[in-house]
Every structure is written in structure tokens, then in C-alpha cells.
Amino acid sequence: MNKSTFRASSDVALIKYWGKRDPILRLPENGSISMILQGLETTTTVEFQTDISQDIVTIQGSSNPIETARVIQHLERIRKRFRIAAYARIQSTNNFPKGTGLSSSGSGFAALTYAIMDALCIDISEKDLSILARLASGTACRCVCGGFVEWKGGSSSDTSYSETIFPADYWDLRDVVVIVNEGMKNVSSTQGHKSARTSPFFPIRQKHINAKLEAVKRCLKNRDFSCLGEIVEAEALEFHSVLLTSQPPLIAWHPGTIEIMQYVQELRQQNIEAYFTINTGFNIHVLTLPLYEKEVRERLINLPSTKKIIMAKVGEKPWKAQHLF
Ligand code: PMV
């Protein structure tokens, strides 16, 4: 077989990966923990063909040179490692807006890595898939796994990979994803990782990050949602404090982002348990329990800043899907 299709879910970082100790190997400054999101997915078909003389990459129906180059770089890496000569035709599609801070590179490179390896009939462990995906995208290193995932920072390429710490059916959490804008974000994670150390708050973050990771694991273990939500929301604000105080300063939020953040805090005052987190974009993840999901969705959809809502729950690792061509 030389053709394969995989569908992979994006994730939401509960504790963020921010800063790269080694930008080439993509070794992170700190470990991170995320929840894989069923509902925000990328589907990718890879076919190695003998009748083409270069790779052909189509994402969401078009070929953007920057995205294509990144995909080909990943293909090259794999071809070199496994001594493959053939070129590939690749088609990929997302069911959520890409480049808006919803980790489309995570689901994208996780689906791509699984599909390439399967199309080549090369069987490697989940750990090795995670290491391979990490070389293309930090977030993808987590998106090769399912459920609640920990990416251990690691001290070398072989020790920097992700593992499921609790499976998808361990705890039924919901993510009400609020889209305030479908346009591309103006804060690039790649640039932001580079400038992380310029923030005076970065060393402070680094000092307590391991304690925070342990605290999140305890909340997950005890299925203690208030404890988890408090940490996750405070972590998002701390992370954005680093962005805001980096050189140059990175302001990811739109006015609508702030409206939603404040509204989520108001919901809690009305005893509706919900907590927000945000990556480098302006769209917001609102975490809640199944009990409050409907109410949270209905309240948020009626806010002037909400353009669209995507509902997500805890997802599985990438799975085989129908070919796109
Ligand atoms: O994978 P990257 O380079 O897009 O970095 C993503 C970083 C955050 O989304 C801000 C945090 C995270 O851990 O997902």
C-alpha cells in the first residue's frame, strides 16, 4: 500500500508549551499538558506516486508556499531517515479555522505524520511518532496521542515526547470554542517562542512551572474541575503576561476576546462552572462540565463578539479515515 488517510484532533494546552530550548530539535523550555479535542480535526491523505517529479501539497483546496514548504520539509526528513525516493501527493482539510490559535498545526502534522508512515508501511511506536511529529510542530508532538496528554520537556530528542496520562473516557470534559474572528492571527508562535526569554516574567514562570504541571495532574487524577479550571485560567493569563511583556510585545487578543473572558468570569459568579484559556490567537476555549455545556453555549452564542461556536470533547489519538482523493 502507498496511500493512507488519517484524521487527527487538535488539542488545547492546559499548561502551555512556550519557548524552545533548541529550535532545530524543537525541544521546549518546559513540559506541557493538553486535552485532545474531538470536534477540531484535520484529515490528510498521502499517496506516494511514481509518475510525479515533485511533491504536490494542497491544504484547504489551495497551495500556500509557506505551508507547502513546511510539509515538504517534514516529508524530506522522513524520506532521508527511512531512505525513501518517491514523491508524494498530499491533500489536507480542516473542519475548523486554521491559523487562528486553535492548534491547527498540531492536528495537521499529527495527521500528516501518521499518514506518511502508514502509506510507507513503516510501523513505528507512538513514542517515535511523537518524536517525529515534534520535529515538524511542537503541538503535533502531543496530538499523536489521545485523551489527556503530557509532553515531557526532555533533555534530548529521544526524551522529548508525549504520552497519554489519562485516556479520553477518563473524564468527560467539554470545550466550548468561541470564534471571535476567523481571520489569521497576527501573533506568530514561531516568533513568540524566540522572544519568550525577553520577558522579565519568563524566569518567574519557569521557576514554578513544574509545580504547576504536578498540580494539574493532581486535579486530573481527582477529577476536580474547580481546581483544574482555576489553574488553567491563571496559566492562560500568566502566559499572556509573558507575551505582553516580550520584546517586541505580542498582543494576541481582540476586543471580543476580552468580552468573552470577562463573561466567563461572570458565569462563575452565577454558579455556572466554566474557565477560559487562550493560545497565541484571539479565539477562546471555554472549558466546562457536561452539566453546564448547554447553558454555557447558549449564553456565549448570544454575545455580540461571538461569530461562531465549535463544541468539542476529549478526543482519541489519530485514526484511519476515508481518502480525500
Ligand atoms: O506548536 P506551536 O509552535 O504553534 O506552539 C504552540 C504554543 C501554544 O499554543 C501557545 C501553547 C501550547 O502548548 O499549545
Explained architecture:
This protein is of the alpha+beta class. The protein has nine helices and 13 strands. The strands form two sheets. Strands 1, 4, 5, 6, 7, 8, 9, 10, 11, 12 and 13 form an eleven-stranded mixed β-sheet that branches. It has a two-stranded antiparallel ribbon with strand order 2-3. A hairpin with a 4-residue loop joins β2 (20-22) and β3 (27-28). α1 (65-82) runs parallel beside α2 and α2 packs across α3. The longest helix is centred in the middle third of the chain and has 21 residues, at 202-222. The protein starts with a strand and ends in a 5-residue tail after the last strand. It binds (3R)-3-hydroxy-3-methyl-5-(phosphonooxy)pentanoic acid (PMV).
Characterize the biggest β-sheet.
11 strands, mixed
Fraction in beta strands: 15-25%
Q: Over the alpha carbons, how many angstroms does the gyration radius reach?
A: 19 Å
Give the helix proportion (percent range): 25-40%
SSE succession: EEEEEHEHHHEEEHHHHEEHEE
| Structural class by sheet pairing and helices | alpha+beta
Bound molecules: (3R)-3-hydroxy-3-methyl-5-(phosphonooxy)pentanoic acid
N→C terminal distance: 15 Å
Shape annotation? globular
Mean pLDDT: 96
In terms of per-residue confidence, which ranges show pLDDT below 50 for 5 or more consecutive residues? none
Number of strands: 13
Helix count?
Answer: 9
